[in-house]
Known about the structure:
The strands form two sheets. Strands 2-1-3-4-8-7 form a six-stranded mixed beta sheet, sandwiched between helices. Strands 5-6 form a two-stranded parallel sheet. Strand 7 (198-201) and strand 8 (204-207) form a beta hairpin. 31% of the residues lie in helices and 14% in strands. The chain has a single domain (3-226), classed as Rossmann fold (3-Layer(aba) Sandwich), CATH 3.40.50. By secondary structure, the chain is α/β, with parallel strands linked by helices. The protein has helices at residues 25-36, 64-70, 73-81, 105-108, 113-124, 161-167, 177-183, 213-226; strands at 3-7, 42-45, 94-99, 128-132, 155-156, 187-188, 198-201, 204-207. The mean pLDDT is 96.
Amino acid sequence: MKKVLIVETNVQKYAGTNEATGLWLGESAEFIAELYKHKIEVDFVSPLGGFVPLDPRSMKYIDKDIMDIYLDKNFIQEGLINTKKPKDIIPANYHAIYFTGGHGVMWDFPDNQEIQEIALKIYENNGYILSVCHGVAGLFNLKDRKGNFLISGKNITGFTKSEELLAGKMKIVPFFNQEMAEERNAIFKKKRFYKEFALKDGRIITGQNPFSVRAVAKLYLEELEACKQF
């Protein structure tokens, strides 16, 4: 079957600070772990290609599955050191695109037109668009061929303002996910902070926070099972 394309950030620090950020490791690793159980292959892309930094705080939340992926030579080489550039991606090779989080994505996901075009082509080919936590930033400016926001009228979720408050990032982040979603006429849903929550609306699947990665993956896998893709 076709692969899943995983999108990761290149941003190493919060804008205007010396505080490190980057990919939230588990948001890539846990998702991959679930897909590997079904022998689904993945590729990695980032806005600039190449190196993907890790959010140091994410290293506090490592379990066996995350560590197994983190030690995997392919993940190290293809997912952290040498991610593909958008120009090297052939959308027809993928059944889904998955936007990972970590605060860095708030700066390099929303306005990347190359990745938006990849996502739209996958979606137009009956594929899925997935995100978790701050990865929802990759959906905000994604438009269809008529110029309409793809998330308009859709039920979605992402990292909440309450969660930003608890993370201590209220004054650093460039926007709040719920506000961005509602400005685009999306229906933003959420549950209690730092609790697992994911939802599907058509072929868009989103998860609220780092504890929702596996829920996103499982909703996607259920869709594949329903259409006998594996």
